TrEMBL record:
Name of protein: [histone H3]-lysine(4) N-trimethyltransferase
Compartments reported by the entry: Cytoplasm, Cytosol; Nucleus
Gene Ontology molecular function: histone H3K4 trimethyltransferase activity; zinc ion binding
Enzyme's top EC category: transferase
Major location category of this protein: cytoplasm
EC identifiers of the protein: 2.1.1.354
Length: 447
């Protein structure tokens, strides 16, 4: 490592420092006070890729959402704001441009494979520490290879095969097998999904400095995105010496579920204050008030059923993938699950809320605006109780509801919901974010 790299590592990120967190390994802590809503730090993506489903709606290079994008003249699949964005993206897009032309409809590497290909290219041309690695180098990412089961091994092998198939002609000297196994494992454990204000999936990225933060189910910061830059803001008061905690997972679910998900995806058992106190579990697991209460075994059996249903949806990952199934089949699955769970679980139970959220997504896809609104109205209040303050999940639900109300000419309800979304977004995204400006404009237009 050269002297310049050493200096930059010591400089770190203003107001924070890398340290050894007891029982957690390396982590990030504050060296000064941060107020709620204050930007702790921003991190440009080391490497990133726009999801295929958003092509034509977002610029491939800067992720700007606009209608007047122009497409790459060669592949006719990548879209850009202007010539500057196209030139800026060319070092990465050229990897795919020729391949997409050659393979046509058969060009179908996964998003993870696309991201890893870009990381490999970046590593070939980058010798110094980047502005994304002020505290943590990408090559320092944990891979947890020793903890991977056979299913994860098979997934990595399939990704490596796809990388060779789609990219070997276009990347000279691909790394050896062991290096690729480690890189895919590192990306799987440390990669981020970039989302918009309604939590729709926009793409995948590597943000090394953001990955340095450890997890808590009661986090004191939140990560949002401004284009391809991750912004980390305080959602609680942070004092000098406090460790800075992000959340790696959806915090809706009870302790047992969260711990299972963290162990499966990130290979640790969470011991945060929320997991040890289990303070929200009773409300999250509310049972329907019946004349004859269900037996503990019945409840356990229903929880097992609910987890299996949720896992089916989780594997599909995003609505746009789920909806490749026949819509009627999906509606039937959701309806049957709601009916079965509803015999024991109250409507505020997180498993019921999960199914309502899926149903709302189907209604939005089918443009059943009244149906979507009805589900949203049932979801929003329990969400506000179950999630932490300044939750993006709560903000996005208020935002969806507000926009639905306005579309259905329910003006006062729409403005009220948008204002509630805005109150959260001004803390989570920052008052100068373009998403915040958009919501303010929507509210202004109703006056």
């Amino acid at each position: 490592m050269n002297n310049r790299s050493i200096t930059r590592q010591n400089e770190g990120i203003d107001g924070t420092e890398r340290f050894l967190s007891p029982g957690k390994g390396r982590g990030l802590r504050a060296v000064r006070h941060f107020a709620v809503g204050e930007l702790v730090f921003a991190c440009p993506a080391y490497s990133y890729v726009l999801t295929v489903n958003e092509r034509g709606a977002h610029c491939e290079h800067c992720f700007t959402r606009r209608e007047d994008l122009f497409k790459c003249g060669k592949c006719k699949q990548a879209y850009y704001c202007n010539v500057d964005c196209q030139r800026g993206d060319w070092p990465m897009h050229k990897l795919e441009c020729v391949a997409m032309c050659a393979y046509g409809e058969n060009w179908c590497p996964s998003e993870t494979v696309r991201l890893v290909a870009r990381i490999i290219m970046k590593q070939k041309v980058t010798t110094e520490r980047t502005s994304s690695e002020r505290l943590l180098l990408l090559k320092e990412f944990e891979s947890h290879l020793d903890k991977m089961d056979s299913e994860k091994d098979e997934m990595v092998q399939a990704d490596i095969a796809a990388l060779h198939h789609f990219y070997s002609r276009h990347i000279s000297d691909l790394p050896d097998e062991q290096t690729l196994i480690e890189l895919f494992a590192q990306v799987n454990c440390n990669g981020f999904t970039i989302e918009d204000e309604e939590l729709s999936h926009l793409g995948s990225a590597a943000f090394p400095d953001v990955a340095l933060m450890n997890h808590s189910c009661s986090p004191n910061v939140i990560v949002t995105y401004k284009g391809t830059v991750a912004e980390v803001r305080a959602v609680k008061e942070i004092n000098p010496g406090d460790e800075i905690f992000n959340s790696y997972i959806d915090l809706l679910y009870p302790t047992e579920d969260r711990r299972e998900r963290l162990l499966d995806s990130y290979f640790f058992t969470c011991q945060c204050t929320e997991c040890t106190s289990k303070s929200k579990d009773k409300a999250k697991m509310e049972i329907r008030k019946l004349s004859s209460p269900p037996e503990p075994e019945e409840i356990r059996s229903m929880v097992h059923y609910a987890k299996n249903v949720i896992e089916e949806f989780r594997r599909a990952k995003h609505y746009k993938n789920i909806l490749l199934l026949k819509t009627e089949d999906l509606i039937q699955l959701i309806s049957l699950s709601q009916e079965k769970m509803g015999a024991i679980f109250a409507d505020t139970n997180v498993y019921m809320l999960h199914m309502m959220y899926q149903a709302m997504g189907v209604c939005l896809y089918m443009q059943d605006w009244d149906g979507a609104m009805n589900y949203g109205e049932k979801i929003i209040q329990p969400y506000s109780v179950h999630y932490p303050a300044y939750s993006l999940n709560v903000a996005s639900m208020y935002l969806k509801l507000g926009r639905l109300y306005l579309g259905l000419e329910k003006k006062s309800q729409g403005v009220r919901a948008l204002k509630k979304a805005l109150a959260i977004m001004e803390v989570a995204h920052g008052k100068d974010h373009h998403y915040v400006a958009e919501v303010k404009r929507e509210i202004e237009e109703q006056k």
